[in-house]
Design a protein that fits this description.
Radius of gyration: 22 Å
Number of helices: 9
Largest sheet: 5 strands, antiparallel
Strand content: 5-15%
Number of strands: 9
Low-confidence stretches: 178-190
Mean pLDDT: 84
Strand order of the largest sheet: 5-6-4-8-7
Shape: elongated
Helix content: 25-40%
Amino acid sequence: MSKHLNTALRLATQGIPVLPLRAGKVPFGNCPACAKNVCGGRPNMRIPGPCLCPYPCHGWAAGTTDPGVIGSPAWASAWRSAATLAYHPGGAGATVLDLDDRSAIQWARETLPATRTVPTTRGEHWIYRGTMPSANAVRPGIDIKSLMAYARWLGSGTGATVALPGAVRALAVKEPPTAQRAPQALSVPRGGHRGECPHRTPTYLDRGIAMAEQRITGAREAVHATVYRTFLAVLSTHGRCGCLTETHTARLFTAAQAKGESARHCTDAWTNALTTLGL
């Protein structure tokens, strides 16, 4: 029995859907009966029609926790030639933030809550509890792997797995292409519901605003998208308790305009973020 098959069977008992990868870290191609998806696909691929193929077909959707399938004769050839092992994070209830270089890791350390970390060849995988749509290149050197995607199994890593933060979800959200134009003034709707602030201390809010300013100021590309995602992240954390003030929004707008954004775009991005979050 190959080491990858042994590992796969162990992970399956933990509820982690696994699949073999061939050389180049890519899934095994569809078998002749499933070539070009003539079989109709698998239900969890959101393609109509079941697939009864016994082979490890259909990329990430081949991931399974069924030891009978994993150890079946139909999968034996794949395990013998497998170069490595992968898993479906979304199927395991997790999201992998794939940080591909040092600058991406530094950004995560300064911006996101610490969670379980797994070293990779060039960077790190940060694993959060919770699922979301997968997305590539959400920031330079950063991919998100969760639903309908696979990630290499590189070990269990270290540290506790924490809940998926709003700042990671915001990375995959694109600003709506159209929106009703709002006034250009800095006096904009802050959103949220008045009441006791759940953050208990203004220090938490001030630190969050300062980090948001740094994120905007440090943007080397895609400034327009960075501004929107930053506004979305701030509002997802602080927008519902009513603790944001005109001073806070002015600080964010000032940072954005220092990067070349117009006051009108800042207002539109803020309004779009409020709409996306239902505030």
